[in-house]
Amino acid sequence: MCGIAGQFNFQRREPVERETIVRMARSIAHRGPDDEGFFIAGPVGLGFRRLSIIDLAGGHQPMSDAQKTVWVIFNGEIYNYKELRAELLGKGYEFRTNSDTEVIIHGYKEWGTDVFNHLNGMFGLAIWDVPNERLVIARDAMGIKLIYYRLADGQLTFGSEIRAILAAGDSTVEKICIWTPDKDLAQCVRGDRVVQVDRRGNQMRDAAAVRTKFGVDPELIPDFLALVGDSADGYPGLPGIGERTAAQLLNRYGAIERFPPDVLRDEKRELALLFKTLATLRTDAPLFSSVDELRWRGPTPGFRAFAERMGEPRLVERCEKLLASPAVGLRKDAPVE
What we know:
alpha+beta
């Protein structure tokens, strides 16, 4: 999995700012941890994050032909690239790498946009045709590799994820989080340099829409997270407390510390307060692109690292002990609602 991002000021032809493309590409750095690359030329800018699979040494992107007349950023895999390479070699094209990306470059020079009819694979890509000042963006017919785009005010902005689009539009954004029910909500909404996006692409700027979305005030998000859990960091919340119940309890009593004794007893209360501490203090955690089911399978590496940073080496043992307690009623492999 790789990531592409770019911008084209096709109407006013204003120069694209390099820092915008860098910000866009780095917003999807989780898609390509091995390498990054940028191409900026007047009104167009291309950015790339790479996960190395084919031609580990020679597959750097953006990639061009030797004459630098065609530039490509490409996410995906072309299954028949060896056959296409042989065909294009027979037509006189010279290859400098063994990557499937270069097949797209020479294929475009030979067939134009009909190159896509020759490709057998999955792809999301952008081609900058220098002589014609033409930007071509395409994905495979099945939509396996998606491309998001925004067209406004004579400007085209695109990327492998909506994160890249949002990062382009706001230079104050540091992190963008796609929300799922067990995502780290405290991380999503803390501060005014974080944008949260729900599954439909609706933005939640910092804490402004938290009450509408979750039914609690922003300051209670750590409490909410402590009750419903965060599987990405390896703690599951409390058994039997879903989002609706958590919101009702917090709206009725306020913070967990103010809950009456009969609402959360002994170990459950201690566990909830521990999770609230984690949710409150954990401000520099990475954003996760996927999460497991809500179940305690033991601490993740990120959880262990966080415990070490807190100077609490026994934190993991404490969680294990509390979660195994009969009063909590949660075994290590038991699912949580």
